[in-house]
Design goal:
The complex is a heterodimer of chains A (163) and B (808). Chain A is of the alpha+beta class. Chain A has 5 helices and 5 strands, in the order ββαβββαααα. In chain A, strands 2-1-5-3-4 form a 5-stranded mixed beta sheet, with helices on both faces. Helices cover 29% and strands 23% of the residues of chain B.
């Protein structure tokens, strides 16, 4: 291995403590994908515009392509792999299927991660609120309409699941 | 709106809005895209790309790169010229233009790969690429397509001795007479910029050499072309190239890249390790492919009542450095130039011109968005000139539903559709009369409020015999696809296709089709995601292009399924002592007609086919597997007479009417879309939920092309929009809530009556938005003939108009 020396970084990913050894220039997106094999975090532009690489840092959506892995030392990170489980999908994952909120699926992890944080703070969003919330995520397939529909449906599902 | 919202528990499955099978893995982040594949010992590649639009490469020194720790292989044009042949062309020309996978001797666009490195990781590979020293001798850049023809500062390919790679004329009907008899003639020049669909996943390749040959993993949409190109370039037998497409993160026609595959194959061979390459976004915008910028001069002849008598067209396509498939835009444009009108006479003079820009190529709708832009703008201009309502002018000229199937002068046969009904549906959905009142009120308030309409055909599938008419080539004809259907011993079914999905939902819709054919539930059908050339059935033309799924591919799927059905019934008849025609299959069982109970489960028949070999009907081959290669029966050969240039270029025709309601900011020129209405007819809908999703997505591509996206080059051939900061895509805030209504006129030419829908929205949207914006600016008397309608362009037009009117 050439280049600068490696640094050990420790953080929590989807509730599990992980230590990765990375060069200082390694982006968080690359560390998640290459060191931890969490390939659900997609890289669409590497300059912070498309939002495909969005992960939650301490519950807040961040672009993992614009962050160095070493900056995440000690942080609690959630990736798409930690949003739901195969047997218990997140309401957003169910709603995206029900409302056809995806075609190729490349932007979808970033959309769902972004919306998961949004729906925690916005229990009864309007379509306009959802459009604002995903305005930093590009989708080249859907024209956004069914993503908006999916988010509104997910809000309903979350509401319905409350005791 | 049009979507049927309930799914019934029983068939028929075709026509139901079945949620997609693909979604569980994709929403969980568990899709496997090219960049998600890892293998032991895999290296990562980076390319060094030319900073010059046009330059001779005098010398390359890669010693420092090779010496960098972690670097395993470096390749330059010199090795490429020694070790490979040029990439074979799809549409060849009389003068052979060598196109290697790396620049040899000369770089022909800014961003052309000049050298490539394989190293232990991407960062090291990029470091090494920066250490490669290239001595360039810059040459004048050919940028403007008109200049490239008339007064070229240089030749993109010296051996061609011109930049015009193709020039031809086509004439159908009595064009001169049409113009001699015309009461009105409208003429103008129309221009469309370069833009591109930018799938969110950039293009990538992994290559690995094994004892059996070369295996490639790539998001390629045209595996038949790619493998053929590689066998020529790498001089290895076709049977030793295996191409696997994993999940593809959007395609839109852009993802075909034999050059990347060849570079990676060479690096992997040199390093004797697997090598992965993935474009970054800048490389993707600089060098994957662009839809070409085009200029068309149109003259339209009309009689006194507004009947269109003929068209004269002169067209220039800026191909950039494209020598793989030039004329694609020209051909697909002029052969569809009637749009949905009964125009008896058309002449077309076309130029395909090489410039020092990224090569042009396939992009959603290829040429047809511009076709529709030109015709639908001309309709508005003609209506204004005659003093007739443009809606009335359209109605007067539509090919009537009663004339279907309708043979157009170019030889295309329009299968079905009621264009007037589609238009009326759009107008009704929009509440057109109310809109006119709203507009009148807005204008009283001094607001620029526009209503714009465009109608369009959406041609489906592409008869590759068309190449003969463009180049004289006679080794490619027709169009087809392959499908493999295999019922396993338990009665469940697997299907694989020659086509490659990139978001279309084939895993779901193919299961719906096969379930109906075989009398089973879609849950019993597994459609292979992706493509594997060693497993899937495929042809040279296989893949995702020209909206061919709903007609051509469905033909292959249905024929294969019916072969299985017939065989299962033969075996069942033999087992039960019935005659085949007394039996049917439904609910996964064999039934005698009219019986209340099934005779035996389908699984029993399937098990017999695989295991109980001596109890099969005499002469019946074991197994329940059918591989069908389908030739679209609508495709034909050109006439023997070389002067007869009629052909069925495209095979069926969906249609739509779009209405855009816009408002222009009087201070900034920014356009806001207030409402967007789509009425469309793609024949019988296999899955209405997916159909409507396609309409949203394709229309959004048109909105991007109309308002935001511009791959502009400066006078030195430098791309000015090589990131998403400069190349603006529509966001959720820019795109309206679409109001979509579907009509379903089944096609008599396709097995299910279904027609394509993937490209449709992208075709009329440029025209609908421009007609709307021009209508909004009517108080200023502005005519719009150039795209995109950026605030800057609109603001300048407003300033000029106000200066003319003395109001600023």
């Amino acid at each position: 291995m050439s280049g600068p020396k490696q640094h050990d970084v420790q953080f929590t990913v989807n509730g599990k403590t992980e230590t990765v050894s990375v060069a200082p220039r390694t982006s968080l997106a690359d560390a998640l994908r290459e060191s931890l094999g969490l390939t659900g975090t997609h890289i669409g532009c590497e300059h912070g515009v498309c939002g495909a690489c969005t992960v939650l840092i301490e519950g807040k959506p961040m672009r993992s392509c614009l962050m160095f892995a070493v900056q995440a030392e000690g942080a609690a990170i959630t990736t798409i792999e930690g949003i739901g489980e195969a047997n218990a999908p997140h309401p957003l994952q169910r709603a995206f299927n029900e409302c056809h909120g995806l075609h190729c699926g490349f932007c979808t992890p970033g959309m769902i991660v972004t919306l998961s944080a949004f729906l925690r703070e916005n229990l009864k969003p309007t379509a306009a609120d959802v459009r604002e919330a995903i305005s930093g995520n590009l989708c080249m397939c859907t024209g956004y309409q069914n993503i908006v529909k999916s988010a509104l449906r997910a809000a309903e599902l979350i509401e319905e699941s409350k005791p | 709106m049009s979507v049927k919202t309930t799914v019934s528990d029983t068939g028929p499955w075709v026509g139901q809005p079945l949620p997609r099978r693909e979604d569980a893995r994709l929403t969980a982040g568990a899709g496997v895209f090219t960049d998600d594949i890892r293998m032991p010992g895999m290296l990562h590649a980076a390319f060094l790309r030319s900073p010059h639009a046009h330059a001779r490469i005098a010398r390359i020194n890669a010693d420092k790169a090779r010496a960098l720790p972690g670097v395993h292989a470096v390749i330059t044009g010199m090795e490429v010229e020694q070790q490979t042949k040029p990439i074979s062309t799809i549409i060849p020309f009389k003068t052979f233009l060598p196109n290697y996978c790396l620049a040899v001797d000369k770089a022909r666009y800014a961003g052309e790969p000049v050298a490539a490195v394989a190293a232990v990781d991407r960062a090291t590979a990029e470091d090494a690429a920066e250490l490669i020293e290239v001595e360039y001798e810059p040459l004048p850049a050919v940028v403007d397509p008109w200049q490239a023809i008339e007064n070229p500062p240089a030749h993109v390919f010296d051996e061609l001795k011109t930049n015009v790679v193709w020039h031809d004329t086509f004439s159908y009907g009595e064009v001169d007479a049409a113009f001699a008899n015309a009461a009105h003639v409208v003429s103008d020049r129309f221009t469309v910029q370069r833009y591109i669909s930018t799938a969110l996943e950039t293009m990538g390749v992994i290559g690995r050499w094994e004892s059996s040959g070369l295996t490639l993993w790539s998001a390629d949409q045209r595996p038949g072309f790619a493998t053929h190109a590689l066998t020529t370039a790498l001089q290895i037998p076709h049977s030793q190239i295996r191409l696997i497409s994993p999940d593809i993160g959007g395609g839109f026609g852009n993802k075909r890249k034999a050059t990347y595959m060849a570079i990676i194959a060479l690096l992997a061979r040199m390093a004797d390790r697997p090598v992965k390459y993935l474009e970054d976004r800048q490389e993707n915008l600089l060098g994957l492919v662009h839809a070409s910028n085009q200029v068309m001069d149109l003259s339209m002849a009309l009689d006194a009542e507004g009947k269109i008598l003929g068209l004269k067209l002169r067209d220039v396509v800026d191909e950039g450095s494209n020598v793989i498939n030039p004329t694609l835009h020209s051909m697909l444009k002029f052969t569809n130039m009637l749009n949905n009108y009964a125009i008896p006479a058309v002449s077309f003079e076309g130029y395909a011109v090489l410039t020092n820009k990224c090569h042009s190529g396939a992009n959603r709708g290829i040429g047809k968005p511009f076709m529709c832009f030109v015709i639908e703008r001309a309709i508005e201009m003609a209506a204004k000139k005659i003093g007739m309502d443009s809606i009335e002018l359209r109605r007067k000229n539509f090919i009537p539903a009663s004339a279907m199937p309708y043979e157009a002068p170019m030889g295309n046969v329009y299968d079905s559709g009621d264009f007037a009904a589609t238009l009326d549906t759009a107008l009704r959905t929009a509440g057109y009369d109310d809109l006119l009142q709203q507009q009148a009120e807005a204008r009283r308030q001094g607001r620029y409020f526009g209503i714009g309409l465009a109608t369009a055909v959406e041609p489906n599938s592409l008869n590759l015999s068309a190449y003969t008419l463009m180049t004289g080539r006679t080794d490619t004809s027709g169009v087809g696809e392959g499908a493999l259907v295999r019922m396993e011993g338990d009665g469940s079914v697997r299907v694989s296709l020659g086509n490659t999905a990139s978001g279309q939902g084939y895993e779901t819709v193919v299961a719906q089709i096969v379930a109906d054919e075989l009398g089973i539930h879609p849950d019993q059908v597994t459609v292979a995601p992706g493509f594997d050339s060693a497993v899937n059935p495929w042809l040279h033309c296989s893949g995702s292009f020209a909206n061919k799924f709903s007609g051509t591919d469905v033909g292959a799927i249905i024929e294969a399924a019916r072969t299985i059905r017939a065989k299962a019934l033969r075996i069942a008849a033999h087992l039960t002592g019935h005659k085949e025609d007394e039996l049917t299959i439904r609910e996964s069982a064999i039934w005698a007609h009219g019986a209340n109970e099934p005779l035996l489960p389908l699984g029993k028949v399937a098990m017999t086919a695989y295991r109980d070999l001596l109890r099969l009907p005499e002469g019946e081959m074991p197994g329940l597997e059918a591989r069908h290669f389908y030739v679209d029966p609508q495709s034909n050969l050109p006439a023997r007479d070389p002067d007869d240039k009629r052909l069925r270029f495209q095979l069926t025709f969906s249609n739509s009417a779009h209405i855009a309601v816009t408002e222009v900011d009087p201070n900034t020129g920014a356009v806001k879309i207030l409402r967007y209405i789509v009425a469309h007819d793609c024949g019988r809908e296999i899955n209405p939920m997916l159909v409507e999703g396609m309409v949203h997505g394709a229309t959004t591509h048109g909105i991007g092309g109309a308002l935001y996206e511009d791959l502009a080059y400066d006078e030195n051939g430098q791309l000015l929009a090589a990131s998403f900061m400069d190349y603006l895509k529509p966001t959720a805030l820019d795109v309206p809530e679409f109001e979509v209504v579907a009509l379903e006129t089944p096609s008599p030419f396709t097995p299910l009556g279904a027609k394509g829908v993937g490209e449709g929205g992208s075709i009329p949207s440029l025209a609908a938005i421009t007609n709307s914006v021009e209508d909004a600016l009517k108080p200023l008397g502005i005519t719009l003939t150039e795209l995109p309608l950026t605030p800057n362009r609109i603001w300048e037009a407003m300033q000029k108009a106000r200066a003319r009117q003395g109001t600023c």
